Amino acid sequence: MTLHKRVPICRVMRPSAFNQDVKAVLPKGDLHSRFLPYLLVGNHDRLHERVDSAGHGTGRLNTDAILSLPVLVPPGTVQESIAELGEAIDGRLRLLRQSNATLESIAQALFQSWFIDFDPVRAKGEGREPEGMDAATAELFPAEFADSELGPVPKGWTVQPIGDLVETVGGSTPDTKNAAFWEPAVHNWTSPKDLSGATAPVLLDTERKVSDAGLAKISSGQLPVGTLLMSSRAPIGYFSLSQVPVAINQGYIAMPPGGRLPPVYLYFWCQLNMDTIKGRANGSTFMEISKKAFRPIPALLPSAEVVSRFHDFATAVFSRVTANERQARALADLRDTLLPRLISGKLRLPDAQEAADAVAA
Q1: Separation of alpha carbons 48 and 54, rounded Å
Q2: Among residues 278, 287, 288, 266, which one has the least CA distance to residue 167?
Q3: Residue 338 domain-assigned?
Q4: Each residue of 84-132: pLDDT tens digit?
Q5: Residue 260 and which of 56, 157, 289, 330 are 20 to 30 A apart at CA?
Q6: Of 184, 244, 185, 180, the residue nearest 217 (C-alpha)
Q7: Domain-embedded: residue 199
Q8: What percentage of residues in the chain have a pLDDT greater than 90?
Q9: Quick one: pLDDT band at residue 69, thresholds 50, 70, 90?
């Protein structure tokens, strides 16, 4: 169990070691171990206040701040009932996110087969029908290879610099000391921090937003839905397909729709070419891949028909991933809203269960 963009709280399910930045909280007395994580979640806002007051500029929550927090502990039977509800919601969250991992792996396997291993081309060259595809799709692939700077590639497919096939843009951070750039907070603005710890490869919201004046300070402006975001430094290689219009900071190379290779194709291409991408990075403080260094990387351009067929399949996959992630976030938000009211006795468990069932439906 974790809290999105908040102080992380999780239950350790096996013996673990950790460093000084993690606090282990163990139950004492009549406090049930199953209930303890939900007690912390239910008091998260109060814990967060103590991060601000106890951090002394470091943003840390020290041990005394946790131990001195007064909490309301319900009777044991109520603790168990609240824990059962919380665990049921967390179980649904795991299933949704496991489903997303499976969906992504299916799309990645198809990309690997078609554009890396060239399985359909090899099959046709050997006089076999390509596996797992209909005749119309198989017809789109050639039956021969041709030499290229990347080695043998399907005949008719070409190799070109990635910068000739897609648009690549960067962003910036408006002056954080100028409130006019940040208030009113209107437009989604992202830094790679939004992608750190993300539970799905889709961007649904951003931690910070800029005003109209702030957006005007960013040369790339507001990028459309479907843009691929790739962090270009500290570290290189966070990815997300934006499901909202978004402006970006200087820590990204963004690839909006409209190029000869669509963002959903590039999502897998970049991951499978990460060694090459990182090999062109440089920097003294931290490694960074610039747009100038990224654009010359050679990329294979398949036929437009094959790219279109993959795009249709992968877009459907990511639509399901997005729907699952929206539901997961709704469930997590509901859990975090219900717990304080359940612990305080202001909400009955049957009513909380009904609300959870409605969101999960």
Answers
A1: 10
A2: 266
A3: no
A4: 999 999 999 999 999 999 999 999 999 999 999 999 999 999 999 999 9
A5: 289
A6: 180
A7: yes
A8: 78
A9: confident
Instruction: Measure the CA–CA gap between 192 and 342, rounded to whole angstroms.
Output: 35
| Any domain includes 216 | yes
pLDDT in tens, 269-280: 999 999 999 999
One-letter amino acid for residue 252 of the chain: Y
Q: Would you tell me how many other CB atoms lie within 10 Å of the CB of residue 344?
A: 11
Note down the domain range covering 211: 164-301
Of all helices (H) and strands (E), which one includes residue 208? strand 208-210
Per-residue pLDDT at 212 exceeds 60: yes
Q: What is the CATH number of the domain that holds 243?
A: 3.90.220.20
Does residue 84 belong to any structural domain of this protein? no
Which residues, in sequence order, are CB contacts of 166 under 8 Å at separation 6+?
A: 255, 259, 260, 261, 266
The residue behind tokens 């282990």 is 24
Residue 59: count of CB within 10 angstroms of its CB: 10
